[in-house]
Design goal:
The complex is a heterodimer of chains A (231) and B (257). Chain A is an all-alpha fold. Chain A is built from six helices and no strands. Chain B contains ten helices and eleven strands. Chain B is an alpha/beta fold and 257 residues long. Chain B is globular, with a radius of gyration of 18 Å. Chain B is 35% helix and 28% strand. The chains are: A mainly alpha (231), B alpha/beta (257).
């Protein structure tokens, strides 16, 4: 953000370490999301425990970042871009941690699912998962490149996440209507869908924090929302 | 002229200051709003103290100092030949980095200015000025029972408030503060800052400070000086959260200076 380094080297190192930890947290969250989606689509029950366990690493990093930020605030009283980096890192790390939690929740729903999940149920879900993963990857790339335009693009694209969520939920609801015996499975899939959509919302929060970091102003106006589909 | 609903009290226009051949200020243009606190920040030697000394013509006392350009207070040029500097300095009080009470009693420290200006006709009036000034400077309760003790017997923070009370005793309109807290502990600093906040309801305050946090806490407007030039001036909020100039950002974030 600023071409010149801090006069105090240890301050520079603290900010760099904060950045490194956030990037690492982003990378782990991206993997968790990918693993959770793969587990759902393949109904891979064996991978669930590993995904649940890996969430702990993300939580640990968030805790580390929280501590680092408290220290930076006390020691450095950061101003201007440093203040915005500190505030945004705190917010982004909390959003990443929540995305990690949602990925874990998605994975946990795999265990009660039947192994022969009908294709008609996972088409939209897969597309939704792909889109949210793409959004997360783009958000993390945008953070690395400090790209304001990319942040706006991600923020606007959440409308597509909403649309796909509605589509996926509609498909599950239709399937459920066919036979009441599908109730349990359908309920799990509805939760999965909703959790992915919630992860998408946290990604838009990340885009907003990133925009603030770069511009020093908040993204104005209401985010475009997808239209619910009548079933 | 109204700007952001604030009246301009002091207007510096194309102000250039020289100490002999060395130019200390370059073409300064700065508006200072009435009944607000304006903070001036910048590395040592950047000209911020020189600038505030132009507001009450303190630079007149330095032989080699030459001031060009204009400083208006309420629209009137203060550098005109016919301006009485004593009256000007009554209107524009000053508080310095190090508390500098006179080697006199607490009472006499406050009474000194009003005596020179003939502000009181009798003892009762002078008592009243002393009490009011000390109350305005939030010092009365601490010194009311020891007014005859030397001003120098007070703590550093109290001495600085005594100096503020002394400046207030002649009913100024503007108070210039040149790093008023740099010699004070955090509690004494907090008391001065609380006082500045209170005083801005009645006075226009210009404060030079090396503490970025202090500038954020006490001021509404901040100007950043560098090498005798004003680099950026804006609302304090904007300067410290999102300055427009990279040099300002580098300075306040500790990247140079």
């Amino acid at each position: 953000m600023s071409g010149t380094g801090h006069t105090v080297k240890s301050y520079e190192e603290e900010m760099q370490s904060l950045n490194d930890n956030l990037v690492m947290m982003g990378s782990l969250t991206e993997n968790q999301m990918a693993d959770a989606m793969a587990a759902v689509i393949k109904v891979d029950k064996e991978s669930v425990d590993k995904i649940v366990k890996n969430d702990g690493k993300i939580n640990e990093l968030r805790s580390t970042i929280d501590n680092q930020i408290t220290t930076v605030l006390v020691k450095r009283a950061p101003m201007a871009v440093d203040l915005r980096i500190t505030i945004s890192t705190m917010k982004i790390s909390h959003d990443l941690e929540r995305i990690g939690d949602l990925a874990k929740s998605v994975a946990k729903k795999v265990k009660p699912l039947p192994v022969d999940l009908p294709d008609e149920l996972i088409g939209s879900l897969r597309r939704l998962g792909d889109l949210v993963q793409k959004q997360l990857k783009d958000a993390l790339d945008a953070y690395l490149n400090k790209s304001k335009d990319k942040a706006i693009e991600i923020w606007k694209k959440d409308e597509q996440v909403d649309d796909l969520t509605n589509l996926a939920m509609n498909e599950v609801a239709t399937y459920l209507q066919k036979d009441k015996k599908n109730l349990e499975m359908a309920t799990h899939l509805l939760f999965v869908t909703k959790n992915i959509e919630r992860a998408g919302d946290h990604i838009t929060n990340i885009a907003e924090s990133l925009y603030y970091l770069i511009e020093g102003e908040y993204l104005e106006g209401a985010r475009p929302k997808g239209k619910p589909i009548e079933s | 002229m109204e700007l952001n609903n604030s009246k301009i009290k002091i207007k510096a226009k194309n102000l250039n200051v020289y100490y002999g051949k060395k130019q200390a200020l370059f073409d300064i243009n700065l508006d200072i709003n009435q009944k607000e606190v304006t903070a001036l920040i910048g590395p040592s030697g950047c000209g911020k103290s020189t600038f505030i000394r132009c507001i009450n013509r303190m630079n007149d006392v330095i032989d080699i100092c030459k001031v060009e350009g204009s400083v208006e207070i309420d629209g009137a040029e203060i550098n005109e030949k016919n301006v009485d500097v004593v009256t000007l300095r009554e209107k524009v009080g000053m508080v310095f980095q190090k508390p500098n009470p006179f080697p006199k009693s607490i009472y006499d420290n406050i009474a000194y200015g009003p005596i020179i200006h003939g502000a009181a006709e009798n003892k009762d009036q002078m008592d009243n000025i002393v009490e009011t000034s000390l109350k305005k400077a939030a010092l009365w309760d601490e010194v009311k029972d020891r007014l005859n003790e030397p001003g120098t017997s007070l703590s550093g923070g109290q001495q600085q408030r005594l100096c503020i009370a002394r400046a207030l005793s002649v009913n100024p309109e503007v108070i210039l503060m040149d790093e008023p807290c740099s010699a004070l502990d955090p509690i004494a600093t907090a008391k001065i800052e609380e006082l500045i906040d209170d005083l801005k309801k009645s006075y226009t305050i210009v404060i030079v400070t090396h503490s970025m946090a202090q500038a954020v806490r006490v001021s509404q407007k901040t100007g950043f000086f560098h090498l005798g030039k004003i680099i950026e001036v804006d609302s304090t909020d904007k300067i410290f959260k999102n300055p427009a100039n990279k040099m300002t950002q580098d300075y306040i974030t500790g990247r140079f200076g």
